Amino acid sequence: MQNLLSELRSLVGETHVLSEENLSAWEQDWRKRARGKALAVVLPGNTAEVAAVVQACARHRAQHPDQHLSIVPQGGNTSLVVGATPDESGRQIVLSLQRLNQVRALDAANQTLTAEAGCVLQAVQEHALNAGYLFPLSLAAEGSCTLGGNLGSNAGGTQVLRFGNTRELCLGLEVVTAQGEVWNGLSGLRKDNTGYDLRHLFIGSEGTLGIITAATMKLYPLPAAQLTAWAVVPSMQAAVTLLGLAHRHLGAGLTGFEVMGQFALRLVDKHFKQLRVPLWLDGPFCVLLENSDHESEAHARLQFEGLLEAALTDGCVTDAVVAENLSQAKALWQVRESISLAQSQEGLNIKHDISLPISNIPAFVQSTDAALAQAIPGVRLVNFGHLGDGNLHYNVQAPEGVDAAAFLREHEPKVNSLVFDAVTYFGGSISAEHGIGSLKLHQLVHYKSPVALTMMRSIKRALDPHNLMNPGRVLSV
Amino acid sequence: MQNLLSELRSLVGETHVLSEENLSAWEQDWRKRARGKALAVVLPGNTAEVAAVVQACARHRAQHPDQHLSIVPQGGNTSLVVGATPDESGRQIVLSLQRLNQVRALDAANQTLTAEAGCVLQAVQEHALNAGYLFPLSLAAEGSCTLGGNLGSNAGGTQVLRFGNTRELCLGLEVVTAQGEVWNGLSGLRKDNTGYDLRHLFIGSEGTLGIITAATMKLYPLPAAQLTAWAVVPSMQAAVTLLGLAHRHLGAGLTGFEVMGQFALRLVDKHFKQLRVPLWLDGPFCVLLENSDHESEAHARLQFEGLLEAALTDGCVTDAVVAENLSQAKALWQVRESISLAQSQEGLNIKHDISLPISNIPAFVQSTDAALAQAIPGVRLVNFGHLGDGNLHYNVQAPEGVDAAAFLREHEPKVNSLVFDAVTYFGGSISAEHGIGSLKLHQLVHYKSPVALTMMRSIKRALDPHNLMNPGRVLSV
């Protein structure tokens, strides 16, 4: 292995191969679910160096198959499913894309931006904004996650309802294959029917097929105004009805539709006294709506008023407020975004990132709430999420006064089975936006169609026959 | 082979295996570029029968490899690239999806529709419309093309600017694999990060990896009003400037942006005397714009007026009209859609379905127009297309008075090379929305990245190792 490290040092420079120092920033995952041991952390400075590193590793793997060398690509190391940190073998190279952090081009007439994989998401947003455009991908980790990681995991976030997942924002990729070849698939094309769509195969493959080094992404004109409203709904079914009304009244202006259960809001109220949580005692769920208008704030407000009037008449909304200004709007979003932290303050819980056909969400929530209450009396549900995309973060918290760690030890597998069985029954997915990583590896085998798994394994073997790329993630080949 | 036909008859019924009758409706492609000879046309009645037919063919292929049996999936047989008709070997089964023509479900709350592959596109549009929803895929062949063919070829059309290609409208697939297994990947989910995206791999694979038997597609609320405008622009660069203005003024309301060169409009004026072609003598290009508004016609008109005022001030538009009513709007669209027929009336020409980064279109057109004029004095260019998507139908017509057939014989390969070399130079695609089929097979090998071709071949071998599915299309394995 020392020969390999010497070769890598000659390829990317002495200071960009770390092996003796403290590597915990690369070895420990974001949620602290697993701590691995890397053979080394390698930080190439450009695409050619990434390719050279992969070639060197592929040669080493071929010459010393018994050493089981492999590569873990890493971006901002914010995976929620232990997808980007090394295992404990000490035989994995962490290939960090951090130094590939240039925005290569912004093409205003084509409304596209080409950036390298290691660009921090927020830097990409700001680059677009400075040119007068919106890059709509937005999620909690945006200050540290990277574009490459967003693509590798097909990240979701709060704007999917209007703009789609990361996948839908991508027009082209540059990829280093498992053989260390560079595929230049960067393209600002909105139409290109020349063979199989390799781009969509790499997006969401979590670094198991190759390494995304750069991408061309869509931009949008900045909206003239964004307004936020907060509504109380008498039931989850009413929230679904409100969503339908919002689509009709706001059209593509509807850029956010978040649902929050009363217990989730109670936790924010309890742990963040400085935040004002509006109307949370008045119903079982509240909804946060965002209207992005290309015309004017006055027009956006008129649209919102029309929608809320119709909703109050219908009865699917019992009370509502519209933010009067930007700081009120930010305060409403802050309540929504504080739910994750508030539940941590309350103690560890069992998290689920699930999606369902929107029409099935009311029945899913009703029957799963009841089944959990019966299985674990007093259990508390932190239910919130992107209802407009059918995506719920349906988290299960210990009963009041019960030790959270003990609750997880005793109940986690049982709760996961109960929730995922229900998700499957209602036609949903066990991972909506976080991916599989190693955390959901065994659940994927259980819940995914065997026909689909067979095809996935064939593709993995076809593109990475020596299992060099991020083994043990997504598929246990 | 007779044993196989007997087995297929027992699987799908005597009357649904055609071999003795006149099969020209299945053997002759839409553009009459190639006529093949099928061993038989098989019309299964449901997904299970499709799977049984594929299994029988796979067994036969394994037992008699020397007979080179294979399957050509076919929908409405409107491929423009000879992608869905048999070759001349007499060893191909045409597997028609025509009898799988049921809309299985329409889920209003989820805004999705699940339909079988053999549904005619127009029937799907009407089913959605009857429930109060828009299914936005729209193209010239919609009266006879099928949803399965649209998915297999990732069809484009006139609404891509706002709603994307067929790919972007699809949430889930049901597929019969090359092994004859059924993958039920139907899903109404907008987020599902559970492994490689098989859906996007099958979409656009032109029947070479498996057979799409059903799909779940997105629906949208019907707009309250649709307005159409027609503008004269002084140059292609001005058309690109107008597109940017239209994005800013109309936001997601901009659902159509078509450019038409003066010679294309001259042909419509010449061959369809009953149509009134507005303003075509006043500039080198005209643009047709469509604004879909979720509010009202009055609002749509106000938006258009704001845009056109800004465009006239800027100088990127020199004159414009807005349709006063629906019949005027239809008449404008009819002019646009008559270009294809008008050029046929004028005589055969050399067609190209290309795409480019929008920012490169003015330079591409200027330099390629000049290069063609130099290579073939008097050559005439029928240049029109979906500028909003960067997609041009850049067709090359014989000089006035020159015999079209002789022109094609003499110039087609040279013209294709000149155009495709220029497309490649400007970062474009040689097939924007029509696919590869067998017509562009050899051009793909020439113009596509070798790294991409290697990956495509690996995927083909992984999913269809015996080359049973539509061989000789997309890839010459």
From TrEMBL, chains A, B:
GO molecular function: catalytic activity; FAD binding
This protein's record includes keyword Flavoprotein: yes
GO biological process: respiratory electron transport chain
Pfam families with a match to the protein in the record: FAD-oxidase_C (PF02913), FAD_binding_4 (PF01565)
Cofactors named for this entry: FAD
Gene3D superfamilies attached to this UniProt entry: 3.30.465.10, 3.30.70.2190, 3.30.70.2740, Uridine Diphospho-n-acetylenolpyruvylglucosamine Reductase, domain 2, Vanillyl-alcohol Oxidase, Chain A, domain 4
Matches recorded under InterPro entries: FAD-bd_oxidored_4_C, FAD-bd_PCMH, FAD-bd_PCMH-like_sf, FAD-bd_PCMH_sub1, FAD-bd_PCMH_sub2, FAD-linked_Oxase-like_C, FAD-oxidored/transferase_4, Oxid_FAD_bind_N
Entry keyword set: FAD, Flavoprotein
Classification via PROSITE patterns: FAD_PCMH
Taxonomic superkingdom: Bacteria
Residue ranges of every copy of the FAD-binding PCMH-type domain listed in the record: 34-222
Flavoprotein recorded as keyword: yes
Family designation: Belongs to the FAD-binding oxidoreductase/transferase type 4 family.
Protein name (record): Hydroxyacid dehydrogenase
Source organism (scientific name): Rhodoferax fermentans
Phylogenetic placement of the source organism: Bacteria, Pseudomonadati, Pseudomonadota, Betaproteobacteria, Burkholderiales
